[in-house]
Amino acid sequence: MRRHGFVAGFLLLPVALYLVFVISPYAQAFQIALTDWRGVSANLNFVGLDNFERMFGDDTFWQAVRNHAVLLVTLPVLTIALGLAFAYLLSDSAGTPGARVYRVIFFLPQVLAVAVVGVLFKAVYRPDASGVINGGLARLGIEPVGWLTDQNLALWSIIAVMVWQAVGFYVVLFSAGMAAIPREVFEAAALDGAGRLRTFFSITLPLVWDTVQVAWVYLGIAAFDAFALVNVLSMEQGGPDGATSVLATEIYKNAFGYSRFGYASALGVALFFLTLTFAALTMRVTRREKVVY
Amino acid sequence: MSTTPSRREVLRRIGLTALAAGPGAGLLSACATSRSAGPVAASPAAPTSAANPLGVDAARPLEVVIFSGGNGDGYATDLHEALYSKAYPKAKINHVPTQKVGTQLRPRFISGDAPDVVNNSGPEALDLQSLVAEGHLADLTPLFEAPSLADPAKKVRDTLVGGVYENSLIDGVPRVLQYTVAHRALWYNAKLFDKRGWQVPRTWAEFNALGEEAKKAGIALFAYPGQVGPFYQLWNLVYSAAKIGGNKVIIDIDNLADGAWQAEPVRQAVAAWAQVQRDFGDKAYFGLDHTQTQVRHLKDEVLFYPCGSWLENEMAKDRPESFEYAIAPVPSITAADAMPYEAIMVGVSEAFFVAAKGANPQGGLEYLRMMLSREGARGYTEMTKNLTVVNGVVDGLELTSAVRSAAKAQEAAGTDIITDIRFEGWYKELFDHGQVQTNSVMSGRITPEEFCANMQKKADALKADSAIAKQSRSV
After folding, report:
1. What is the interface size between A and B, counted as CB pairs within 8 Å?
2. Please, where in chain B does CATH 3.40.190.10 lie?
3. How many domains in chain A?
């Protein structure tokens, strides 16, 4: 009993901080979502599920959800594929010279703040000949491309930035996973005459599957965010015509632009459940027998 | 809180009561919404007199929040606050410059600790409707009725340019003072026109003809920034519509009148501008922000740019000697326009309000009265190169060529002044929706008819939304 008291004493402060700064805002968001709060009064009018009804009838909401769906598939697939490929090429079994240097270089974008990345890519995507990409195209005599102003390209341009920024982290993560695989397994496979591809799919991938699974959840959650990049890069904060809108930008606009804090909280609650559902589903679908070696 | 807080209160403030009282009740009391502001007793006014018509308590401190944007906040510290200190040396002034008006002040309004004077500008300006609904904005009637410091024989209201009082009304009560005057139309380089021997076009046919000329010289006839600042073009579309159909077009739009956006003048204006963009524009500008576009304008890559008379001040650092800002009215779109070619938009901006539940509302009103004094208004123009709403105080001042050109254009326009757009402040959702639709129609993704229909749909939805307080105007 005394030992429990001792442990509780240590836990008291962190748990209190967690309750106040994490759990209570969540609880409040649920509460505010049921009101018509405008952000400057101390009193809340309860309006039941009005905000949710409005949300389900709102085209902008569904457009944002569709964009999240695209992000949810492409961001993890592209990032994990690239991350695995790079990590495999840099792993000891591949024996690429200078692997450590590459790992550092790949990781670099990860240390940049998202806003910095946004501003950086604003210059990269600039739609006239002063842009990094369009400047190169102009030299080849190709018309400048509106990377962020073309409805069919805008979301992909933003996904490319997200992948660029995320890949480095997963290269390091997968590298660590691969380094933990016993060398004998590869040697045995090599003796059996397995090529590089075969080794990758039959040995490496199954043995880092746990890590891939975690990566998928992380990236899925990142796909539900994308706020900063969309805010800095896109036109009309989610345009053109909502082609890049995500729930976070809609929440921001409704709360701080239109003082619809109640509605914004309802969107936040929707986002909460979407993220939760996704994480639960992923864990379930990708669950499989653990490989023991 | 005047008394020393008890231990229990201290605990509650850091949220630990939550643990003692169980999760739920105590927890929520630590956060924004459930803390009660309580009724704040209106601060009693000092007795009024001829010298002190607003009843200012000479010793009470005054807090002034200034949006420190393009105009800086030096005009407040060095000029207006200095004036106040001179008149009331005992009053301590607390000057708060900020770039994030909303983020910084929202919690203070909730907790009942509002500053006295607020310059509500910038990208995070507070939504005035919701502040009025909670009774946070002081009634400015005493200010407008008080004798002016610019001309003691007149009331403050009578020293201001037309439209300022009407613009201050929310639900029929004056609540917000717009301090500066801006002229909005098309800006061009007068020196370039001189050099090439070009005439400013007066009709849409001349505008198109000039577009062909400019094209040969490798200059885009017209551009607006699509990435940050598509509202410059939204303004331009609506002002052009008013030129075709008269100010009634704008008044109907502001009043959310049925079919206001689908009126023929709106469609004609949008169609005309979409045609100019299609034939003479460059799609790169859809992805540029206002600064990038304005720099290209200064390099003579763009002939006409829709903006306001603050433009020269904003671009002062980048402007080459070969560029002289001048304003041109929008060319007449049809032969039967309701307003003549000379008509331009003259509007007011830079909102100031006084908090009703602050510690010193009388001092706040007095501060605004000093801003509207001859010294306060003239000094502001000297420091920021912006004209204020006070009439006749800038004689002999050296103004920028943009402001001089705008003053001349206003003279030519006479009474044909295009009115301001108020739905921008009244219904920000509609305004933002308008920016999206503007980019859409200008880049040819939707037709002018679809633009009108989309705007009408949003306006109708707002009209039907009981959560949004409705405003109306007759002039």
Report:
1. 133
2. 62-181+347-398, 183-346+418-464
3. 1
Q: At what angle do helices A154-179 and A59-90 cross, to 10 degrees?
A: 40
CATH of domain B183-346+418-464: 3.40.190.10
Rounded to whole angstroms, what are the CA distances from B255 to B173, B238, B286, B427, B434? 17, 14, 30, 10, 16
- Alpha-carbon span A261 to A77, nearest angstrom: 35
Domain range enclosing A68? 59-285
CB atoms within 10 A of CB B355: 25
- The per-residue DSSP string of B283-334 comes to GGGGG-BHHHHHHHHHTTSEEEEEEETTHHHHTTTT--TT--EEEEPPPBSS
Quick check: B237 pLDDT over 90? Answer: yes
pLDDT at position A38: 80
A140 DSSP assignment: T
Å from A205 to nearest chain B CA?
Answer: 42
Q: What are phi and psi of B314, to 5 degrees?
A: -65, -35
The domain that contains A178 carries what CATH number?
1.10.3720.10
- For B309-432, strand residue ranges (E) read 325-328, 344-354, 387-388, 417-418
**Contact residues on chain B for A19, CB-CB shorter than 8 A:** 15, 18-19, 23, 27
**Contact residues on chain B for A41, CB-CB shorter than 8 A:** 37, 110, 130, 133-134
Are β-strands B302-308 and B220-222 bridged in parallel, bridged antiparallel, or unpaired? parallel
Q: Could you tell me what percent of chain B has a pLDDT over 70?
A: 91
pLDDT at B65: 95
Is A18 part of any domain?
no
The confidence band for B42, taking pLDDT boundaries of 50, 70 and 90, is low
Written out in words, the top-level CATH class of the domain with range B62-181+347-398 is: alpha beta
Chain B hits for A31, CB-CB cut-off 8 Å, are 28, 33
* Per-residue pLDDT reduced to its tens digit, B267-319: 999 999 999 999 999 888 998 888 899 999 999 999 999 998 888 888 888 99
**Does residue A135 fall inside a structural domain?**
yes
